[in-house]
Design brief:
Layout: E1 11-12, E2 18-19, E3 23-25, H1 41-50, E4 56-63, H2 83-95, E5 99-105, E6 122-123, E7 127-128, E8 135-138, H3 141-160, E9 165-170, H4 175-180, H5 195-198, H6 200-216, E10 222-227, H7 239-250, E11 256-259, H8 278-286, E12 292-295, H9 301-308, E13 314-317, H10 319-323, H11 327-332, H12 355-362
Parallel strand pairs: 3-4, 3-13, 4-5, 5-9, 6-8, 9-10, 10-11, 11-12, 12-13
Antiparallel strand pairs: 1-2, 7-8
Helix pairs in contact: 1-2, 3-6, 7-8
This protein binds flavin mononucleotide (FMN).
Length: 372
C-alpha cells in the first residue's frame, strides 16, 4: 500500500480505450518535427524517453490544414503524406507502454504569417493576433466548413497511423477557441452571434471527428476535447460560457474533457463564483458526467494527490515531464525524493530534450524553473 496507489488505478474510457494509470503527458509543442511536418528522429527519442510511465501521452498539437500551422517544427496531420511517419510516433509511444493520442489543431489568428501560404492568416472574424504582430482576415462560411472537414480528415490519418485517439485542441486561444470567444468571433452568420452560434464551430468539429471515428476506426479509438475555461479580456469567455460549452460537449459522448490551466488552483474571474478555483467549479458542474483531465504547475507526487482530491480523475503533467521523464516510475518505486523539479543548464542531452525545444526554454525567462 502506498498513498500514491490512487494514481495507479487503470481507467477505461467510454470508447473502450484503457489507460494503465491516471497520469497523462500534457500536449507540448517541441518545435522539432521536420520542416514538411513529418516526424523527426529527435522527436521520437524525446517521446521514447517519456512514454514508459504515463498512462497516456498527448502529442504536440498537429495542424489540420496548411494554413493552420502556428509553430516552426510543428508536426502535420494535414496531408496523407504525413501518415507513414506518424506511424513511427504511434509505435514509439505504444511500445513504451502509454496510449498515444494526437492533439489536432488549427492556429487561426496566432499563426505567424511566414508559416502560412501567401501569409493569408485567418480567424473567425478580422482581428489581430494576440501579440499584435499579425492581421488575420475573417474566414468565409465555405472556408469555415472546409476547416471543419479538415479536422475529420486529420482524424482519419491519425487512425490510419495506429494511434489510440485524438484530442481536439479547443484551448489556448487557437482557432476553435477563436470561434467560441465573443472577442474574436463577431460574425453574424450561422458561425457566430449568439452563444449558441458561437458553439456551432466547436461542435461541428466534434461531429466531424466523431464521424471519422465511426467510419474508419476498427478498434477502440478515443476522442477528447481541450478547452480554456476563461479569457482575460472583455468581451471574452467567462466561466458561465464554459459551463454552456461543457453542457454541449457532454452530449457528444466524449472520452474526456481536458481543462487547460497554467495553474491547477487558479481562481475564476468572471462568471461562476469569482475567487473560487475554476477547477473545483468545473468538477462540480460536470458531476462525473465525463472524465476530466486537470493540469497546471503540478510537480510533486503530493501536489498531484492534492489536486485529485477535487475528484478530478486524471492529471496531466507538462513541464514536469520535460524536466523529469521518469516521474511516474519514480513515484511507483517510492523514489519521490529523487524527482527533479528544476532544470540545470547542462541537462539537455541527459533529459533527451530536442535542441529547438531547449532553445525556446532557455530563451524564455520564467517559463521553466532553473536550479542555481
Ligand atoms: C513547451 C510547451 C509546449 C506546449 N504546447 C502545447 C500544445 O501544443 N498544446 C496545448 O494544448 N498546450 C500546450 N502547452 C501547455 C501545456 O499542455 C500545459 O497546459 C501547461 O504547460 C501547464 O501545465 P504544466 O505546468 O504541467 O506544464 C505547452 C506547454 C509547454 C511548456
Amino acid at each position: 500500500m502506498s498513498k500514491y496507489d490512487k494514481l495507479f488505478e487503470p481507467i477505461t474510457f467510454k470508447s473502450g480505450v484503457r489507460a494503465e494509470n491516471r497520469i497523462v503527458m500534457a500536449p507540448m509543442t517541441h518545435y522539432s518535427s521536420n520542416d514538411d511536418g513529418t516526424i523527426s528522429d529527435a522527436e521520437l527519442r524525446y517521446y521514447a524517453e517519456r512514454a514508459k510511465g504515463p498512462g497516456m501521452v498527448v502529442t504536440a498539437c498537429a495542424n489540420v490544414t496548411e494554413n493552420g500551422k502556428a509553430f516552426t517544427g510543428q508536426p502535420g496531420a494535414h496531408t496523407d503524406e504525413m501518415v507513414e511517419s506518424m506511424k513511427k510516433l504511434a509505435q514509439t509511444i505504444q511500445q513504451n507502454g502509454a496510449k498515444a493520442v494526437v492533439q489536432i489543431h488549427h492556429g487561426g489568428r496566432e499563426c505567424p504569417a511566414e508559416l502560412v501560404p501567401g501569409g493569408d492568416v485567418v480567424s473567425a472574424s478580422e482581428t489581430d493576433s494576440s501579440d499584435g504582430s499579425v492581421h488575420a482576415r475573417a474566414l468565409t462560411g465555405e472556408e469555415t466548413a472546409e476547416i471543419v472537414k479538415a479536422f475529420g480528415e486529420a482524424t482519419r490519418r491519425v487512425i490510419e497511423a495506429g494511434f489510440d485517439g485524438v484530442e481536439i485542441h479547443g484551448a489556448n486561444g487557437y482557432l476553435i477557441q477563436q470561434f467560441f470567444s465573443p472577442y474574436t468571433n463577431r460574425r453574424e452568420d450561422e458561425w457566430g452571434g449568439s452563444l449558441e452560434k458561437r458553439l456551432a464551430f466547436p461542435l461541428a468539429v466534434v461531429d466531424a471527428v466523431k464521424k471519422a471515428v465511426a467510419e474508419y476506426a476498427d478498434r477502440p479509438f478515443l476522442v477528447g476535447y481541450r478547452l480554456s475555461p476563461e479569457e482575460p479580456y472583455e468581451p471574452g469567455i467567462t466561466m458561465d460560457d464554459t459551463f454552456a460549452l461543457l453542457d454541449a460537449l457532454m452530449e457528444k459522448e466524449l472520452d474526456y474533457v481536458h481543462i487547460s490551466l497554467q495553474h491547477f488552483w487558479s481562481k475564476a474571474r468572471r462568471g461562476g463564483e469569482p475567487g473560487r478555483p475554476r477547477m473545483e467549479q468545473i468538477v462540480e458542474h460536470v458531476a462525473g458526467r465525463v472524465p476530466l483531465i486537470g493540469v497546471g504547475s503540478l510537480h510533486t507526487g503530493d501536489e498531484v494527490l492534492k489536486a485529485m482530491e477535487t475528484d478530478v480523475p486524471l492529471i496531466a503533467l507538462g513541464r514536469e515531464l520535460v524536466m523529469e521523464p521518469h516521474w511516474v516510475e519514480k513515484i511507483k518505486a517510492g523514489q519521490e525524493d529523487a524527482i527533479q523539479t528544476a532544470l540545470r543548464k547542462d541537462d539537455r542531452e541527459r533529459l533527451v530534450i530536442p535542441e529547438p525545444l531547449w532553445k525556446m526554454i532557455i530563451s524564455t525567462p520564467g517559463w521553466f524553473p532553473f536550479a542555481e
